[in-house]
Amino acid sequence: MSKAAVDVPLKGGFSFDLCRRNDMLSKKGVQPPSFLKTGTTIVGLIFQDGVILGADTRATEGPIVADKNCEKIHYMAPNIYCCGAGTAADTEAVTDMVSSQLQLHRYHTGRESRVVTALTLLKSHLFSYQGYVQAALVLGGVDVTGPHLHTIYPHGSTDTLPFATMGSGSLAAMAVFESKYREGLTRDEGVKLVTEAICSGIFNDLGSGSNVDVCVITKGQTEYLRNHQLPNPRTYINEKGYGFSKKTEVLLTKITPLKEMVEVIEGDAMEE
Amino acid sequence: MKQQSNWSPYDNNGGTCVAIAGADYCVIAADTRMSTGYSILTRDYSKICQLAEKSVMASSGFQADVRALQKVLAARHLIYQHQHNKQMSCPAMAQLLSNTLYYKRFFPYYAFNVLGGLDNEGKGCVFTYDAVGSYERVGYSSQGSGSTLIMPFLDNQLKSPSPLLLSAQDAVTPLSELEAIDLVKTCFASATERDIYTGDKLEIVVLNADGIRREHMELRKD
User: What residue ranges are annotated as transmembrane (chain A) (predicted)?
Assistant: First the structure.
């Protein structure tokens, strides 16, 4: 058997082959395509019976709003949810991937997933990519060991906190949390505080906006409150609406007959 | 590797301006949000300045430069009034603005202006500028962060489908004053949805034979 040199692509990891070419192009003035970032406000807090997560719904591409109502609270397991800030593709891909891994793990162990499992899978993935996977996450859930809330940074470091905020609106949201958070909040108080923190991000941070999404996780039950609050209705709608003139103008009519390229000769069918 | 400078004398405070000229009126509008980076500095800052009886300028960009420009134009207008014993006409103010901007060709005013008003015949006029003074009289224009969103819509509504039917020289729209104000409100409500630097409040100034009138409309604050 001949040992032909076949170029098998390396398993996993980024391929940095095009970096030199990209560098050369950018020196010649070619702009690289921009990413869709979720300039965002995401928060989480621990209350009496579990964890509450919150997020805004605006996705931006530079100064333009690309999606006015995107979902930033991602499903990881029935008892674990994760908010994502940073590059939208990265947060989506990494949470989907770990969610699948958790499901396989549940089948393997026969048990409910634990938050620390999701945490370890996420942080080791992000660390191995050395920060190139730009996902900043707020991970929260309730398992047999109790309620848990963690923040995960793009380079792979984590914190375990009673309340946390991430994204461009994190300072606006943290200002609210630091003023009003206390231990042992009830469900309604917790949801109200999370909503206030997200609204603070929505109105004071230009990278965040539109609506408030909330997710309440307790032992045995999860409530995903999509568009829990819609504090930004459109301010002016013209009743008549605006139409587009359907006039199409014929500038020139010219008929070009098809030229015959090949002469077709009626011939005998080929004989076998 | 040559060291690049990391201090810039300019900042962009965002915002959008629009002006539409009619047969006997002119509508000039701008939002009132002033921002820097991802933060809001204030929700209630006027970008519109009345330079003369029949000339109103709206400017987006770096508001410190805009303020300095407004002061220079106001001073020059005062001198004109002393020397000629009359107010400057809108086309005259348009030329003055262009010259003032070009004067600082090599350290420009970071200001994107639209000048609106009534010309000597009482017809509406709109002049649109770039940062160094290149200008043109048009029937409508928009400048600022939301201009890329608003201009195609205005072209669609106000320009004829083909340049063969109506050339750009006919610089006055056939809309009535109320229709033009309605159009401006729709433009801003739409631009606010998709541009993060536009929002809070809309300030509309209308110039016509009866004088000058101001209107306000709330915009999204997120």
Answer: none
How many other CB atoms are there within 10 angstroms of residue A173's CB atom?
30
Kindly report the pTM of this predicted structure: 0.80
Alpha-carbon gap, residue A41 to B184, rounded angstroms: 31
Asked if B222's CB is within 8 angstroms of A202's CB, the reply is: yes
Lookup result for tokens 């560098």: A23
pLDDT tens for chain A, 272 residues long, are 445 556 665 566 667 778 888 888 888 887 777 666 658 999 999 999 999 999 999 999 889 999 999 999 999 999 999 999 999 999 999 999 999 999 999 999 999 999 999 999 999 999 999 999 999 999 999 999 999 999 999 999 999 999 999 999 999 999 999 999 999 999 999 999 999 999 999 999 999 999 999 999 999 899 999 999 999 988 888 888 887 766 666 778 888 888 877 777 776 666 55
Tell me how far CA of residue B47 lies from CA of A61, A252, B56, B199, B201, in angstroms.
Answer: 26, 47, 11, 13, 12
Is residue A189 helix, strand or coil? Answer: helix
Residue type, A17: D
Asked whether A190 and A52 are in contact (CB, 8 A), the reply is yes
**Do the beta carbons of residue A193 and residue A185 sit within 8 Å?**
yes
Q: Which amino acid is at B149?
A: L
A27 CB near a chain B CB, below 8 Å? no
Residue among A38, A40, A158, A195 flagged as catalytic = A40
- State the CB neighbour count (10 A cutoff) for residue A134: 19
Which H/E stretch holds residue A38?
strand A37-38
A40 is catalytic: yes
Would you kindly state where each structural domain of chain B is located, as residue ranges? 16-216
Instruction: Look up the CATH superfamily of B16-216.
Output: Aminohydrolase, N-terminal nucleophile (Ntn) domain (3.60.20.10)
Neighbours of B18 (CB within 10 A): 30
Give chain A's domain count.
1
Record the tokens describing residue A157, joined without a space.
Answer: 């470091």
Residue A6 lies in a domain: no
Q: Which whole-number Å values give the CA distances from A148 to A59, A142, A145, A186, A188, in the listed order?
A: 27, 6, 9, 17, 19
How many whole angstroms separate alpha carbon B50 and alpha carbon A72? 45
Would you tell me how many other CB atoms lie within 10 Å of the CB of residue B167? Answer: 9
Q: In what order do the strands lie in the sheet with B111-118?
A: B48-52, B55-61, B111-118, B124-129, B135-138
ipTM of the complex: 0.80
Q: Does B163 touch chain A (CB under 8 A)?
A: no
Average pLDDT over residues B71-80: 97
**What would the two tokens of residue A102 be?**
């958790």
Q: Least CB-CB distance to B185: which of A206, A236, A248? A: A236
Range of the domain at A175: 41-229
Q: Which positions 52-81 of A are in contact with B (Cβ < 8 Å)?
A: 58, 60, 63-65, 68
